C-alpha cells in the first residue's frame, strides 16, 4: 500500500521518557503554566510522569505513528528533558537545527545520540547549530518558540525572552521562512512563554488563542495569514489555552492524519470546535496531567521528524 506524505504532519516523532521528572525551578519565573504538586512526594511525581510518557508513546504507536523513545536518566540535571521539541527541529530536504536555550539546565538536554539516530535512520544533509548564540543571550527555543507552517513557510512567533528577534531572523533566513512575530499575553498581562501553547497549525485548520494577542491589528493579520493558506481558524479562549488546547500536534500514519493533544485539552473544546477538527483528523487524546505540571503538554513532548527515511 502506498503511504501518503503530509508535509505538515510527520509520521515519526522523538520522545524522551524522564526517570526523575520534576517541574523546572529555573523556568518557573516566566512560565505561567507551570504548577507544583504539594500533595505528592517527588518520587511519586517522577514515577507518574514516567508512566504517562510510556503510555503516550504506546498510544501513538498503536495509531501507526513511529516513536523514537529515548531515556533521560539524569537525576536533577535536566528536569525538562521530556520536552525535546525545544532543542532541535527537523526539516524536509534533510535539515536539522539545534537551538539556543534560555535556562542553563535546559542546555544540557541537547543529545548527540538523538542526532546520531536521525543520521542513521533518515537522510540528514546538514545540522545547523544555533546554540553558539547562548553566550550572547540570544535564545530561540525551537518549535516551542516558533509554530511552523511547513507548507507556506511561515514561522509564527510570540515575542518572549525565549524567542529573540535576531535568532529568529537567522533561522528564517537560513531555512527560508517568513517570520511572523507578535506579542501575546495571558490574563495577568504576562508574556506567553512559548508560541506552541497558544497555537497549532495543522494541514486544514489552525487552533489559535487570538484573544491573547492584545494588538487588534496584529491579531487580524495573524488570522488573515492563516486563512490565506486555506486553513479554517478555530479560535480558542484564554481559558482553553490555560487547559493546553493550543498545545497539539498534527501527525500522520501514512494513511490518515491524527491530532495528538492532551485529554485535558480535548475536554476543554466545544462540540463545534471538535467537529471542525474531526473533519480532517482523528483525535488522539493522551493523559499527561503530571507532565502538564511543568507548564507544557503533548505538543511539547513531541519532536516531529520531517526527514525522509533511509
**Number of structural domains:** 1
CATH architecture: 5-stranded Propeller
* Structural class by SSE content: alpha/beta
Backbone shape: globular
CATH class: Alpha Beta
Largest beta-sheet details: 3 strands, mixed
Q: Roughly what fraction of the amino acids lie in strands?
A: 15-25%
State the total count of DSSP E strands: 15
CATH homologous superfamily (4th level) name: L-arginine/glycine Amidinotransferase, Chain A
Radius of gyration, in Å, reads 18 Å
List the topology elements.
Elements: E1 12-18, H1 42-62, E2 66-72, E3 88-91, E4 95-98, H2 112-121, E5 126-129, H3 142-145, E6 146-149, E7 154-158, H4 165-175, E8 178-182, E9 199-201, E10 205-208, H5 216-228, E11 232-235, H6 238-242, E12 249-252, E13 257-262, H7 263-268, H8 271-278, E14 282-286, H9 298-301, E15 303-305
Parallel strand pairs: 1-2, 4-5, 7-8, 10-11, 13-14
Antiparallel strand pairs: 1-15, 3-4, 6-7, 9-10, 12-13
Pfam family, one: DDAH_eukar
Protein name: Amidinotransferase
